[in-house]
Amino acid sequence: MAADLADIHAFMAVARAAGFREAARITGSSASSLSAAVRRLENRLGVRLLHRTTRSVAPTEAGTRLLDRLEPALKEVEAALDLVNGFRDKPAGSLRLNVPISAARLVLPRIVPGFLAAYPDIRLEVIAEDSFVDVLAAGCDAGIRYDERLEQDMIAIPIGPREQRFATAASPDYLLRHGRPRHPRELLDHACLRGQFASGSTPAWAFERKGERILIEPTGPLLVRIGATTDLAVDAAVAGSGVIHLFEDWLRPYLARGELEPVLEPWWPRFSGPFLYYPGRRHVPATLRAFVDFVKAMPPWL
What we know:
Layout: H1 5-17, H2 20-27, H3 31-45, E1 50-52, E2 57-59, H4 61-82, E3 93-99, H5 101-106, H6 112-118, E4 122-128, E5 142-145, E6 154-158, E7 163-170, H7 172-178, E8 192-196, E9 205-209, E10 212-216, E11 222-225, H8 230-238, E12 243-247, H9 248-256, E13 261-262, E14 270-272, E15 275-279, H10 286-297
Parallel strand pairs: 3-4, 3-5, 8-11, 8-12
Antiparallel strand pairs: 1-2, 5-15, 6-15, 7-12, 7-13, 7-14, 9-10
Helix pairs in contact: 1-2, 1-3, 2-3
């Protein structure tokens, strides 16, 4: 009465994600196919594995016990199969990364083309989102995050620039009409284009100069989801709608073309760059080892 391995993976994905829709998003399949797979598994085992309501999905006691036994067993299976990669000239298989949208835009373009050329048998999948997720629960091999958001018991290696800045800028037209602020608190009298995380929190704008740190909560005509619609805020700033506060690397092309002008540059705060992180207590797949080694071998980020 052996169950199909694909159905087992479907059950584990739904249980981890606590829902069919979220599991479908993570796995790239459909909610209906996952539901059918779980039903097949339950019918073969003769026991209900998931409690289903219109609002939530949770494992039954049987489902919880099965999940507890399956996870370490399947990790061992994956590790055993991955050993075959050691007999290849170059590793093959899939590699899934969960990264913030800023990293997908500002860090990975310098890495990914060379990596894919060096390892043509690896299929790289990048999931870009700014909500904080458990990379393992999301079915990913590794993630990119900044140090303040790294999970415990993770191995972290530097990736991308080791120092970054937040830049504040506005269009020449806006500054001509509204004047140029000379101190961060003067932004409270300006139209500011702000970002909001998926959680609903709206981060304050931080400024630093000669040991002084200032946080302000400006207001303005536009609020966008950080990452997903940040480009809309940039376009609005270029069009003269207000002042923007964003990664300097994101704004650099607009500053170089003169579409935006620096504002309060002596106050731009610096912060450490991102890290590639992955679990330190499990087998590292050959595809991830190849990516880690490739990142480590890259020349210093300029």
